[in-house]
Amino acid sequence: MRNVLIVEDSKAIRSMIRVALEEQGSYFVVEATNGFEALKALPTRDFDLIVTDINMPDINGLELINFVKSNPAYRTIPLVIVSTEKSEEDQKRGLALGAAGYVVKPFKKEDLLAAVAAAIGKT
Amino acid sequence: MKKERPIKEFLAEAEDILEAANQALLSIESDQAGNRSAVEAVNALFRAMHSFKGLAGMFGLQAPADLAHMMESLLDGLRLGKLKLDSGTLDLLFETTSLLGMQVQQLGRGEEPGEIASLLQRIEEFLSGGSATADRSALARVRIDPAILQVLTEYEEHRLIENIEKRSDLHLLKVQFDFESFESGIKNLNTELKRQGEIICTLPSAAASGPGIAFSILVATGESGESLAARIAAIGIGGAVLEQVEYLEAPRPAGPKQDAQLRSTSNTVRVDIAKLDSIMNIVGDLHLLKSTIGRIAVDLRAAQGFSGFAANMAKVHKNLERKLNELQNGILDVRMVPIGQIFGRLSQAVRKYAKEAEKEIDLEMAGEETVLDKLMIEDLADPLMHVIRNAVDHGIEPPKARRALGKREQGTVRLLAYPKGNQVVIEVEDDGAGIDPRKLLRKAVEKGIVPPDHGLDPEADRKEILELIFLPGFSTSETVTEISGRGVGMDVVKRNLSRLSGIIDIETEHGEGTRFTFTLPITLAIIKALIIEAGREVFAVPVASVLEIIRVKADEIETIESREVMAVRDETVPLLRLSRAFKLPDSAQQDMLYVLLVGLAERRIGLVVDSLKDQHEIVIKPLGKRLAAIPGISGATELGDRKVVLVLDVETLIGGAFRRTVVSSQ
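Above: the input entities. Below: the structure tokens describing the complete assembly.
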């Protein structure tokens, strides 16, 4: 089983991602509704992947990516950005900070799974 | 079955998001554009729409997703300073949000969401009017850790640039928390920081020592480093390190852009309205002096050998008058603000009340650009709010009832303002149930406001009966709802309006709707007044309250059922002798009297006075506490010869007269 942390403030989208991943039978999903929860969740298990939104209050997705990538304990966890096409500039910044890929909302299940598989494959 | 569950999930979250969006929209509207809380509210709304779009998209709901997408684009333009927050933008935001709400409701009822193409197109056109990409050069003007710059979202970067351009003090705060308690710690800190300024970013990093979490927070503020540090210490956060971000250049770099900005700010000053009042008082005094000069000119002409002087003086008097009027208009102009300022607030209220009353209401507004004295606008908000509340609550029927009546399910409330000479007229109209005079009369009897044997006929005495709603303690609603609340009635509305020398009129058609018309002077700072005499006393009557002056022979006044009336063209108008209204001694029998026709539409009344003396520009001064409660008097003013006269409050005088006719008609 792969451990996946989903950071997304929309409950419905969070659960859609969860369902899409869980249906595959090979992912264990932990949900965080914002950056603070993500920070708290990180040490709780060895994550294989983080799927994160960018536009969130307090800690944004870019700050979370930066935190993960600059922290020796988490540096190797790949991140996939889930964001709308409005945030094209922000997606670029996320990739520059070390995110493995991104999915544009609204996305098809296949797109998400492909991005997730690619991100995990990269490591 | 499988399909049903997700849509329910969508509905629940969509409603939550729209609720938050409405809250944000309300605070955007009530705030001044550009201040800190407006910036936050725009951002919150942007996030709400962003979530909504993502959500709708995930559920394959194209129309709401497209709508949210357009709204997001609008908000993004606002956030990033590419669009201006003006009434046009706000209207679009409100309209889009309400259409989204409707779509969600339609989806909830299992219907297809309605048409959106025309709104989408309008937004698109609106957006194409916006412009400009971000100018990032400002970032080079400060020394900020590149590690911070690279984690800023586009929006945060824009906020930083704005703050650099305003030359806000920027502080980088480094603070460390234990892992167990960091969330509450950082939340407390951020709450405090938001009070002091704007948080640009909150960058977490692993603590330098131990298992904790460190944060680098970039704050833009007007506070000094010392006071910021003191506030942080005061909320019990220790070990924080505060660094002021250094500006790399002199405060005012030359350049055309900066020049333009500087000029625009120094072109405007904020003035306390009390200062304008005191200038207006001086103008009032100057008018008096001008009149005195005019009188001296007249005296001089009558004197032997001074006709040359007299002619010159008369010329100077005329010039002085003209210049004085210009000065007065100039000062008045400064006080004038568009009534759209409160229309915005009222439109929020309608949305809120409609939601609470579970009614669907279209609000139409027109004439927002009509101007009115700033002071009066503030005092007008409450009475208008109350009338609108009544329209939503008691006027517009619930959707089901409307359908049964063959009306459109959505009720309409129209808010209209327009200037009329030196007055402003504001109408609040609904297409609801209207007021049934029979029901109203029954209620008045129950409440003991009119005696059971009132003898009033619902058709013939319609106008008197409608007047009853302006009496204290009168409410026609059968049940007291949460919205209309209790205690405050139309009597308060009327009283507040008459304080503004305004009058309120009601027209209603049972089953078709009600229209309230507020008519009030454009300003109270200085007004034209007729100086009249009645019962050997002199009074000032605002010209704006007088429709017509009629000179009548004493024997043209007739008495019907012990009420004095006179015929004005085809109408019979009740009369009120001013001397009797104030219990003054009757003046000696006169052959000729003057009747000032006052009031509106169905409520005209003739004020009988002994003589007309003059017309003056007057500045109304408030009466002392002991005299303030006298009905029919709104204040006092000084005339040229240092004589103080009382200023009539026509609306309360008429109200009193009507009440008397209703109650004493038996």
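Note for the figure: Chain B touches chain A through 41 residues (CB under 8 Å).
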